[in-house]
Write a structure and sequence with these properties.
It is a single chain. This protein is an alpha/beta fold and 548 residues long. Among the domains are: 75 residues; 154 residues, 3-Layer(aba) Sandwich (Rossmann fold); 83 residues, Helicase, Ruva Protein, domain 3 (Orthogonal Bundle). The protein contains 21 helices and 10 strands. The chain has a 5-stranded parallel sheet, sandwiched between helices. Helix 2 runs antiparallel to helix 4. The longest helix has 29 residues. It is globular, with a radius of gyration of 36 Å. GO terms for molecular function: ADP binding. Pfam families: NB-ARC, WHD_DRP. Keywords: Plant defense, Repeat.
């Protein structure tokens, strides 16, 4: 028989020292059989004896070789299942089986010259090679580590890591994301009346705070007021500014000054002076959205100074904030406007709109809705939670799916009567894995950041999280755009088309969620306090934001 390189020798080589004893024994029996039937070429006397016993040899061949081939194949498959990472050369079947024994064929063939013995292939793994490669990678990373350490050391006196809540927040714009305002119609109408013709119309400057929990709808309410036609006709100058975590009055003044139209005979001066000149004879509405805190009350008073110079009455500043303390401090009204959860009937309409869209549930959905309303009660009247969980349920209008959502253990982590983070985490858990990766890495984007699709896709490509799967006809850019649209559809991204370009933002609570799920490997560091917190050894991605 012609001995082929990569047959029985490969089988024996594929059994490592740690393989189960029964596999080694099975291979041993097969090799014992092969030694009986397939021993090395014999001397001439033994060949003559073999010729005389040809018929007997044929029987042995027919009985042993098939058993060898069948048993070896079965055992190799069994061992191969236990060695998914072994690097063995593939066995090629070119259709030429001339070397295999057939009834009546000669028992042995001569081995090729210089190949008197076979060599078992080595596994494709070398500790030395891997160690050298890791050493080279570490050496390449040393300069980057040195540069990062120098930056952190230089700025260490004014930097710290982001805390768990509210530190990495996206920028908001005046563009309303939701076409309809649920459960706030009465409040919105009262505010519009008061600022255009009611009790604030005759005041020189009114600061109106809107206070509420994250995700309760403060920004959405302010957006609907800002875009109301009556409001836009009433105010000559309208400005929307998302206030960063670090209240910087100088930067805020410059931003506002850039958005106020210039006037004739304008004199050069500071941002404060220019604002005073430009709004002197114009009624204005300024929205300061998502205001967190400021270290010095005098800074707030300084911000108000140029706006008090207007000679027209009825000027309004709307401030949205989570902080009741801040709302009390900035208000000029009797009480801030406090937003709470939407009442159950209005919230039900909002929830169903996110689940069924423009369609109305039918009688076929009766049993489904019984489970849906139980889920709705866990959302604490939060529009943000209704949006993410509602769209999760919309993806599969099946009772089993809705029941799994209702019975999820994630709800057990709910703390307090207003905690919606479990609802957001549950929606995240049900995202496809590739969307989870794309969303979670966005925790590295700086606060108040509006990113465009091209930048985001290049970022994902760099992180190697865009994969074609079964969509081989799509480019990686097409896959990235599809993922962006899917994240918008699931409620994790908000689309923003202001300033002539499309962009995307993430709600601050969803940004907190992204930071939470990637806290073991991603860290965003930004200018916000006087100390730099500890950085975990497991951190692999670090983003540093400079407030320039």
């Amino acid at each position: 028989m012609k001995i082929r390189f990569g047959s029985v020798g490969d089988l024996s080589a594929s059994v490592p020292a740690t393989a189960p004893r029964r596999n080694v024994q099975a291979v041993g029996k097969l090799l014992l059989c092969s030694s009986t039937c397939c021993s090395a070429p014999a001397p001439q006397a033994r060949r003559r004896r073999a010729a005389r016993d040809a018929s007997q040899s044929d029987q042995e061949v027919h009985g042993c070789i098939p058993k060898l081939v069948s048993g070896a194949s079965s055992t190799a498959r069994h061992v191969g299942k236990r060695l998914p990472c072994s690097s063995l050369p593939p066995i090629r079947d070119d259709g030429d089986h001339s070397g295999m024994l057939s009834p009546g064929s000669a028992f042995f063939h001569e081995a090729p010259q210089g190949r008197h013995e076979t060599e078992t292939p080595k596994l494709g793994f070398s500790r030395v090679d891997v160690s050298n490669r890791m050493r080279r990678i570490v050496e390449q990373l040393r300069p980057m580590r040195k540069e990062t350490s120098e930056i952190l050391t230089t700025l260490g006196s004014t930097w710290k890591t982001a805390p768990d809540i509210g530190q990495s927040r996206p920028i908001t714009t005046s563009e309303s994301i939701e076409p309809r305002l649920y459960g706030r119609d009465g409040i919105m109408k009262n505010i519009i009346h008061d600022i255009t013709q009611g009790k604030y119309y005759g005041e020189n400057l009114t600061v109106l705070p809107i206070v509420g929990l994250g995700g309760i709808g403060k920004t959405t309410l302010a957006q609907h007021i800002y875009h109301n036609q009556e409001v836009q006709k009433h105010f000559e100058v309208m400005i929307w500014k998302c206030v960063s975590l670090n209240f910087n009055v100088n930067k805020l003044m410059e931003d506002v000054e850039n958005h106020v139209p210039k006037v004739q005979d304008e004199k050069n001066g500071t941002a404060e002076e220019l604002i005073g000149q430009r709004i002197k004879s114009k009624r204005f509405l300024l929205v300061l959205d998502d205001m967190w805190e400021f270290s010095d009350e005098d800074e707030w008073k300084r911000l108000l100074l140029p706006f008090k110079k207007s000679q027209v009455k009825g000027n309004i500043i709307i401030v949205t904030t989570r902080s009741p303390k801040l709302g009390e401090m900035v208000k000029t009204t009797h009480h801030p406007i406090e937003l709470e959860g939407i009442d159950r009937e209005e919230f039900k309409r909002l929830f169903l709109a996110f689940v069924f869209g423009d369609e109305q549930p039918t009688l076929d959905h009766t049993v489904l809705l019984e489970t849906g309303y139980k889920i709705m009660d866990k959302l604490k009247g939060s529009p943000l939670a209704a949006k993410t969980v509602g769209r999760l349920l919309r993806n599969d209008l099946d009772l089993d799916h809705w029941t799994r959502v209702l019975e999820s253990k994630e709800w057990e982590s709910q703390r307090g009567s207003n905690d919606i983070m479990p609802a957001l985490k549950l929606s995240y858990d049900y995202l496809p894995f590739d969307l989870q990766q794309c969303f979670s890495y966005c925790a590295l984007f700086p606060q108040d950041y509006k990113f465009d699709s091209k930048e985001l896709i290049l970022f994902w490509i760099g992180q190697d999280v865009l994969h074609s799967g079964d969509q081989n006809n799509l480019t990686v850019e097409d896959i990235g755009l599809t993922n962006i649209r899917d994240l918008v559809s699931h409620g994790f991204f908000k689309k923003d088309e202001t300033e002539g370009r499309a962009g995307y933002t993430i709600h601050d609570l969803l940004h907190d969620l992204a930071s939470k799920v990637t806290s073991h490997e991603c860290l965003n560091v930004h200018l916000s306090s006087k100390t730099l917190g500890n950085i975990r050894p497991s951190i692999r991605h670090l983003s540093i934001t400079l407030d320039i």
